[in-house]
Amino acid sequence: MMGPIGILPIELLYEIFKPFHDDLDFITLATLRQVCVQWRQIIDQPCHWRDLRITRPEPAYLLKRHLRAHHAQIQRLTLHHVKDDVLRHVLSSYPALQQLCITQWITLTHHAFRLIATPTTGVQRLEILGGPQRPFLALDGPALVRLLDACPCITHLSIQQCIMPLRSISLLVKALQAHHRRQKHAPYHLTSLTLPIGACTDAEKRLLHQQLPHLMHLHLQQT
User: What pTM value is reported for the model?
Assistant: First the structure.
């Protein structure tokens, strides 16, 4: 690389790139890594990509383009203002992902949960937080079951501050029962479940535990 910046020590280059890492400006970093081999080696350090917060609305094609080189390193991801195609992309393309937080969307339709049949993500904790505006989340019983199938390692699922068509635990139980009749598989690993619906009866809890035998914590929060 020509010019004075080409002879800067690596320690100083780390300090130059640090503001971009602190601001989690992954688009700028993805551009800078193309300047030269030295910059790429510094920016591509796995520690810089394990925990990402994407605060701007970004279409799926930009995530694919700019995070392609790092999708196997991302372990924790927070997405603000997410859309259907972005959620599908993340849940099907980031094999090392363990924690995912979705916040402040306008509307998420059932298409966001029509995922590929073969699970590719190791997500263990999923938080879907609507925020003060309580946006609509088109997640009914069958769609929630599809989400569990797409994330077979999930242990903690928290859905809060949003409006859902799933209005009772009995509807979720029926969806789980129907799914188990159609397709036999190992029990889900879910141990903690939070949903924005009203309280349920003891009988409904017993039926739910039959379908989710590892469930230890059930939190129901009426919107």
Answer: 0.85
